[in-house]
Amino acid sequence: MPIKVVFCDIGNVLVRNSASEIYQKYYDKYGIPKETFGSVFDFIHTGQSTSDLDKFIKTKNLDPKIWEEFTNDFFSSENRNDNLYRLLEEAKANLGVKIIYTTNNSVGLQDILEKYSISDLPDLTVNSALIGVIKPSMEYWAKAFDLSKSLIPGLVYDQVLVIDDSSTNIDSAKNFGFQVIHYQGNTSDQLIKNTLYPIEVQAQNIILSDPSGIEKYINEL
Fold it and tell me: By the number of CB atoms within 10 A of the CB, which of 39, 52, 107, 192 ranks highest?
């Protein structure tokens, strides 16, 4: 069944970073495991206030200055994943696939979208901080799917492709009934392309960026 909607994560997928190297750096320097920083990010994704975040950091015995240093390193390492962005942009233009950002991000998400020039791509954004439930909960996927059906009435689970770097999120999305790709860097891009473009189209070697190729593809659907 052809893909009609892509649920794309942002952090470490559409916006890449050097998280692994930075986590190792802070473990070597301060003895702080990545799980500690991860738990703080998870707390941020729930949309709590700054004062609540400060209190939570203290419960983790994490020095606020180290957290500030860590976040500066983390966010300065980020950059747009141009390969994936172009792939999704072409699928949207050529195949009519709807792109939906599915993210456990903060209420400051719009700043991130504009900073990395990715705000024009999505048809919809499902931000956990605004809908009150987070990935990997089934409630999150149910909400995202219901919102997607407002764009494509009659949409079914198998027509949704989830791209995420979290194995936990991928497992829950698969259990919900979606098609999934566990994103692991640029090596995943070809798999995404193969999933979006039907095998028979690839076999015919139709160049979908060419108008005649697009017309031929649509006529043969």
Answer: 192
7 pLDDT more than 70: yes
CA dist list (Å): 87 to 59, 142, 150, 159, 193 = 42, 26, 24, 18, 7
Q: What is the mean pLDDT of residues 66-73?
A: 95
Contact status, residue 160 vs residue 126, Cβ threshold 8 Å: no
Q: Which two tokens stand for residue 63?
A: 């020095």
Is the sign of the CA dihedral 11, 15, 121, 91 positive or negative? Answer: negative
> 60: alpha, beta or left, given left = phi > 0 and alpha = psi -120 to 50?
alpha
Between the two ends of the chain, the Cα-to-Cα distance in Å is: 11
Lowest mean pLDDT among 40-54, 83-97, 202-216: 202-216
pLDDT for res 107: 59
**CA trace torsion 146, 86, 193, 91 (10° rounding):** 50
In the 8-state DSSP scheme, what is residue 82? Answer: H
Q: Residue 108: what pLDDT?
A: 75
Q: Which amino acid is at 26?
A: Y
Return the beta strands (E) in the chain as ranges.
Answer: 5-8, 15-16, 79-80, 98-103, 124-127, 160-164, 179-182
Overall residue count recorded for the chain in this entry: 221
